[in-house]
Amino acid sequence: MRVPLIAGNWKMNGSLALVEQFGQAFGEANLSSSMEIAILPPSPYLAAAQTAFEKTPLRLGAQTVNPEPSGAYTGEVSASMLSEFGVHYVLAGHSERRSLYHEDDKAVLVRVQAVLNEGLTPILCVGETLAERDEGRTEATVLSQVKTVFDMLNAQQRQHVVIAYEPVWAIGTGRTATPEQAQTVHAAIRAYLVEYDKQMASTLRLLYGGSMKRENAAELLAQPDIDGGLIGGASLKVDDFLAICQSVG
Length: 249
Ligand code: PGA
Hints:
The protein is α/β, with parallel strands linked by helices. 41% of the residues lie in helices and 16% in strands. An 8-stranded parallel β-barrel has the order 1-2-3-4-5-6-7-8, surrounded by 5 helices. The structure holds 2-phosphoglycolic acid. 2-phosphoglycolic acid binds next to strand 8.
């Protein structure tokens, strides 16, 4: 049984006022107790969000982490610091980090390891570019991104990872993968995970991300291998994000 997870990645957006708004709305909302919901605000808002979300089902997540435990890394934040603010989930390998900040597979791996070592849950993001899809390399790209990380984890660590499939061409573009396109890739990832461990493959959560919104969430989330969503733009409006959470079947 996989507990659905809906995670809102605010990216470099939001405000203290938005944190308060989410705390208020989710404190009053009627939501299924058999799902998990997380908001990943920019790190300066973590302390306020920890307080504002206290009486809500919202968990906290972070958008990135530095793999080092501490030291002279100006501007960076460590996993133990995130943990002190009640963070549960940490993204690793988001396509914006891969492309804008040149985080390669090795950089993604050390971040996943740092998050796991702190006892937190990494959300490993994978996904192909439009060129890779057009060249028929979708599965090869995505599975190789999974492999570089999973090969270096032990069996116990693998069980604690969440994977988010986010086709790069669908992120922030308004162009969503069809439910069939997404399901095909999710099924391929799950089939690949069986090579490591059948039990882990059946319990590991696979999220879809890329222009998921209230209009298309139910159909995507109804796919057998889609266990939740990683939502960018639509997580910035409380009504839209609530509607997505409510469309978990
Ligand atoms: P989007 O972003 O929902 O705005 O496409 C998703 C993501 O980048 O995680």
